[in-house]
Q: What sequence folds into this?
């Protein structure tokens, strides 16, 4: 029986996909085996000498003072979220800049620029909102904090004005 060129090509593509899946499966299985073997050897060869000091919380070489359940100021979380947003933005802008240079030479630079502009605005608009709302100010005046606690953030600005 004779195969046509299209059928032969489809068979070759199917074989390539099967080989790809088998290669990925082999890679995952080898990774789990190596991790399991390493952890098993470590568990079998390590000495176990329990001590109460080993169970104590360790933070940068300083002894723990007080309770570990301390309420942190929400500004720490705000700063962390802003950092993550800009970290992701920088991580994505570097490859975009490299690709944009090649796309500009190939004639697709305007499409890449508009795609970048949409991405940048999706990052910039929430940042500008946080900045305008005052969430990025580390030290806020005590009267502004009282207003917010009494009336809630947006209501306080509406009744008393945003700035003092």
A:
């Amino acid at each position: 029986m004779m195969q046509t060129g299209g059928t032969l090509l489809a068979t070759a593509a199917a074989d390539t996909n099967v080989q790809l899946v088998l290669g990925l499966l082999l890679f995952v299985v080898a990774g789990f085996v190596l991790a399991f073997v390493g952890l098993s050897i470590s568990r079998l060869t390590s000495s176990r000498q329990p001590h109460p000091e080993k169970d104590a919380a360790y933070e940068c070489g300083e002894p723990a003072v007080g309770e570990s359940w301390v309420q942190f100021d929400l500004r720490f979380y705000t700063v962390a979220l802003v950092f993550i947003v800009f970290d992701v933005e920088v991580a994505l802008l570097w490859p975009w800049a490299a690709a944009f240079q090649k796309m500009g030479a190939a004639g697709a630079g305007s499409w890449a620029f508009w795609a970048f502009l949409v991405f940048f605005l999706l990052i910039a608009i929430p940042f500008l909102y946080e900045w305008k709302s005052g969430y990025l100010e580390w030290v806020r005046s005590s009267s502004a904090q009282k207003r917010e606690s009494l009336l809630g953030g947006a209501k306080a600005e509406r009744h008393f004005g945003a700035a003092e």
